[in-house]
Design goal:
Blueprint: H1 5-11, H2 25-37, E1 47-52, H3 55-64, E2 73-79, H4 95-112, E3 116-117, H5 125-131, E4 139-147, H6 165-168
Antiparallel strand pairs: 1-2, 2-4, 3-4
Helix pairs in contact: 2-4
Length: 172
């Protein structure tokens, strides 16, 4: 039986301890397809997803940030701001928002498939671009280390600490 979306969202937590086995290609394909289906501003789809699996490139990432948590693979979520919609009222590009929506969709798909992940912004984007020889036109916005959670992995103590709605929602 499929779980309700609200249950899926409540169960998802940031996994920081991974089993060493890689995610199977068919499972990865489902995750990437879910990202492809995510909405983007004006459906321009400026996202660029890089799947890092080689030991050499994972080592380069680990030299830039310790926040890969020794995951067997990492998604680098990027977008090309030149292909993104620009808000005519404030001049802001939708690239980062589009990449974020794609990342969130993939993280929730991972949860449904029993794959753990965590959203990482603790890295120098320019160093990532250089180390992995990413195109100049793309901007890395987040890393998603992912894989099967280790058997001793648990949510952080802060996972269930949520502000009440009256502190985050206003009715106008």
């Amino acid at each position: 039986m499929k779980m309700k979306f609200s249950e899926l969202a409540a169960l998802r937590y940031s996994v920081r301890r991974f089993d060493s086995r890689p995610v199977e290609q068919d499972v990865l394909d489902q995750i990437l397809e879910t990202g492809r289906l995510a909405p983007t501003a004006k459906n321009l789809q400026p996202q660029r997803i890089y799947v890092v699996r080689s030991k050499a490139l994972l080592a380069k990432l680990r030299a830039i940030t310790t926040m890969t948590f020794d995951a067997p693979q990492v998604l680098i979520i990027c977008a090309d701001p030149g292909e993104a919609w620009v808000n005519p009222f404030n001049g802001r590009s939708s690239a980062e928002m589009d990449a974020s929506i794609v990342a969130a969709h993939m993280m929730l798909q991972m949860q449904e498939l029993g794959i753990g992940s965590t959203w990482v912004c603790w890295f120098d984007p320019e160093k990532v671009k250089q180390a992995l020889a990413l195109p100049e036109s793309v901007e890395p916005y987040c890393l998603l280390p992912f894989g099967y959670p280790s058997t001793d992995c648990r949510p952080s103590r802060q996972h269930d600490q949520r502000k009440p709605l009256d502190q985050t929602v206003r009715y106008l």
